[in-house]
Amino acid sequence: MASSPVKIAPSILSADYLRLGEQVREAEAAGADYIHVDVMDGHFVPNITIGPVVVEAVRRQTDLPLDVHLMIEEPERHVEAFAKAGASILTVHPEATLQLHRTIEMIRRLGVRPGVALNPGTSVSLVEAVLADVDLVLVMSVDPGFGGQEFIEGVLPKVRRLRGLLDGAGFAAELEIDGGITPETAPRCVEAGVRVLVAGTAIFNEKASVAESIARLRESATRALEGGGQ
Ligand code: DX5
Ligand code: ZN
Prior knowledge:
Blueprint: E1 7-10, H1 20-29, E2 35-40, H2 52-59, E3 66-71, H3 79-85, E4 89-92, H4 100-109, E5 113-118, E6 136-140, H5 156-169, E7 174-178, H6 186-192, E8 196-199, H7 210-225
Parallel strand pairs: 1-8, 2-3, 3-4, 4-5, 5-6, 6-7, 7-8
Helix pairs in contact: 2-3, 6-7
Bound molecules: D-xylitol-5-phosphate and zinc ion (ZN).
Zinc ion binds near residues 11, 38 and 69.
């Protein structure tokens, strides 16, 4: 389980917040690679979630990298607080910040890995100029704001385009997908070039344990990587 080349990043958005520490530890024990933390401000997206205080609390529960997804306006005003709280990766949306390059540099100087995220309706051209400067490119496969939405198949050509751009230029940024990821949708994402799968409801749900859900997702991703399809 340990050395699969596809990483799994459970999104705590769907976790039970009253048992958050326990659920994060369960995900870590089950072989999760990152813990994905969704920060929403009620402006950039319609929902409001959590801030640095919770990131700090999660940081104390796990040694895994914290993959913090900032769905907030003017992320440059908050990156320092999230860095101090223990974020390992800070991903921003290009529409939310006036000076994307400066914000990425700011994150890097704070000792955190910078990432950029693309909404389903946002073109690759908005981040093309910074692909050399980031460690992660996140493709949203739902409109951001809520867990449990349906996967948007139409983002896959964008994933293939990004895979080509990154490989063609020899850039090492990880390609991550977020939204509607399940053992059914993951294989197509992996085939298109994704190497980090974010999953919320497919991992934290009533139907199966966190360990079983992570194992199913990993199995589907590994099969796709080996060319077995679904
Ligand atoms: C959505 C968030 C996602 C969300 C995914 O705006 O960015 O990380 O938790 O949830 P699922 O996997 O349920 O689509
Ligand atoms: Zn997210």
